[in-house]
Amino acid sequence: MVFLLWAVLIANIAVAAVQAYVDVNFYPIYGERATLTYPSGFYLHYNHFSNFMLGIGLLSMGIAFDGDRGRMMRIVSWLMYFIALYGVVLSNSRGAIFGLGAGTVVACLGWLMSLWRRKVAWAGMALVTSIALAPILIAAAWQLGESAIARRGMGDGGRLELAAMALDMIVEKPLWGGGSRWFFFDSLTKWDTQELYLGSHEVQYVHNEYLQAAVDYGLVGAGLLLVIFCATFFRGVAFLTMSQKNDGGDNGFVIGSIAALVGMGVQAFFSFVYHVLPDLMLMSICLALIIRQPWIFSKRLAVREYFSRNWVMSSLAVLLGLGMIGFAARDGAAWFILRPQPEQANQLIEEKIFNLKQALRVRPDFRVMSDLTKAMCEMTADEQMSFEQRKKLVEEAIVIQNELVRLVPQSYHARLTLALMYDSAFRYDESSWLYKGILDDNLIIEVVYGVRYHYARHLFARAHLVWRKRDPERALAYFHQARGIAAESKHTEHRADAAALVLEIEKCIKFLEGANIKPAEINE
Description:
The protein contains 20 helices and no strands. The protein is an all-alpha fold.
């Protein structure tokens, strides 16, 4: 297993080096990286790459500290540690740099515990040397972190504001949280636009996995995770300090795993590192390496009883694994249908829609639904389609989008998209309540989505529709509403369009009022 991890480490470093020094766009897997700012190896984001680097590096350091291993194995382990250190520096992740420093300190402490337990003659000298070198190590980690911040040109204000938003949400639902992705859907309700600029998009992550766990799953869920980690750490520390040589076990794996978990855990204060499967797999490997060591407080078992107990536990583990595979089968099948392919960039929209529908049949997922309705709306721009074909496609997209809104009613984006679809199908009565609902839920959403601008366009189109039906009084009322809503539009991307829309509305109002038309009362 260790050699396989090292092979993946070297491959990632090779790709990251090409990205850093040769071609920033280089990516050997089909698809595009999430950010081109810093190298990310085989990962889409540099944070996940750096998390893998520090995890494997610290695990290798623990193996290098194990005096029971051969000299060549320990030399190679040190080499892997320094390669991983280079990868962390390449990633420019400040959280990973601080995590690497913390993990290195923990690995040194674990090594000293092991020396003390084995009563090595030079353990005292090692302790004195470690204490003397500790300030240098801490200063080096701090300097690397400060350099990373300087190169990024970013401060900590944004992360602190996201943390403040998360704390407000935890106070609102402290016990059980709001459920998976609650921060993604509702964090904007706690957003102070005077303190933090978010641009024109939702924020998926707190950039602090502990706060994110408490937001989504409450203090109960986050506490359960911490209990699991603390129990595992206790087992590892107990093994390092109290086990005997004839108890068996592997000091290197325990030291390295504890250090890796601490390092990755420190980075989790800064980044969303546990939101992808490879990072979780590495964390699980480290937990498993600690748990599989002998439990020092258990009584000595006869050989037959030992193997009998192991057989039972192994059977339960296999059953649990099969159950998890069964639950994950749908996800895997849906991913396989939509997997990245070399011709994906030139994929026909019809083929894309077909694949999305196939994936949706396998696993009803709101993200796949969103991609499908978006692709269907793009297809309506095809000039070769007849009016009836466009109408049928839009109606089909509306049905899917309605199901999406039913699945995730918290999603402002899904509700706004449905309203725009209704508008495109001239179903204004059904879109009107969606616009009002989004505005009533949270006025701050306007800054992200431009709801007022879209609502003003809706009212403008509706006014023209009733005007053509020879109802100028209602048309004038809609024009007045549209003018008031458009004037309040704050979304930067639509600000110029909103100003032009107001001019068009003013022309219509001037014409109707010039004809002595009085606005009707609209009770909607």
